[in-house]
Amino acid sequence: MRIFIFFACVIVPFVASAQRPTDTVYFNANEDVISNKEAAAYYRVITKRAADGSFDFTQYQKDGTWLTSHASNTINQPIYDGLQTWYYTTGKPHEERTFVHGLRKQILVYYPNGNLSLKLTYKGNFSPPLVMYQALPDGKALVENGQGTGLLFSIVNTQNALVDSAAQSYTLTGKYIDGVKEGTWTGKDTRGYTVEEQYEHDKFKNGTTITPSGKKHNYTNVLVIPDFKSKRGKIDTFIIAHLQNPADTLNLWHRYDTDKHISIAYKIAANGDITGAYGYLSNGSTVELKLTRKLPRIEPGTVRGIKTAFFMPASNWLGYPQPRRNYPPFQVDPDLSGHYKGHQ
């Protein structure tokens, strides 16, 4: 979990700026534009406009971090160009991204002490990154010019996790050749399970998870989501049809959600039981959806061959959520010897 520390002498307060009203735009956690600044998860301020219609802007987060960027199009859906920099609350650079007409070209990630943690380069906007450099917090390089024995690490934010955090929190070590994973990568997850995976030119081939008791689980897909068998819409329909207090829920929905939709979310346990249905309003609040009947059981999902609980941020009542537009920077933890997580 990230620890948020506020330094009044460094951080720009999370309040309206002195810019013109049209130069400041507020967004909720779902990245929708809202007018209520008190409910905003972050906001953007245009700081400079160019004759060609492009502009510079600063984005202020509630956690005290911020980014600066150059873009074209609109402040709501910017097309990034040039250098974009995310900052720690201390004011030091956290991540520097280079864009060319909206396409990512390079990402540099820094530790809080200022040392370079990671360098990624991209051949295309949707291609996986090449790991060209990776180092420990003290500056010791693990990968240089795409060659070396590197670390692959992931920690799941339990507030936003799709799957059980223990299943997705892992550390693997293996070879990078020309910036891509090759051969055998081994390590453990936080459940104490041993993991061994085979890669060929960065493509995952197969793997084996070994439990502390010695039981082996072979897999050819790292992540298998629960098997809905085209039932995703049916589950949403079932929830709506069996609301214990439909009138109260719908009144909340119409009163507070200016976009006239509510996202249904629920948990699928490792045995396939569906529990904990909630409605997420666009203002960030939640509504517990109490039902008159128990939800049906489905085939559970797996992570590295092990049946695992999934948290499903389900479809909207009026369509599906748009893809995320605001990607946070990679997170580095100096106490974890150069491990990182992020938006690969």
From TrEMBL:
Question: Which controlled-vocabulary keywords does the entry list?
Answer: Signal
Give the highest taxon in the source lineage. Bacteria
Q: What InterPro entries does the entry give? A: MORN_2
One Pfam short name: MORN_2
Range of residues in the leader sequence: 1-18
Record keyword Metal-binding present: no
Keyword Protein transport (UniProt): no
Protein name, per record = MORN repeat protein
Species, as recorded: Mucilaginibacter yixingensis
Origin organism lineage = Bacteria, Pseudomonadati, Bacteroidota, Sphingobacteriia, Sphingobacteriales
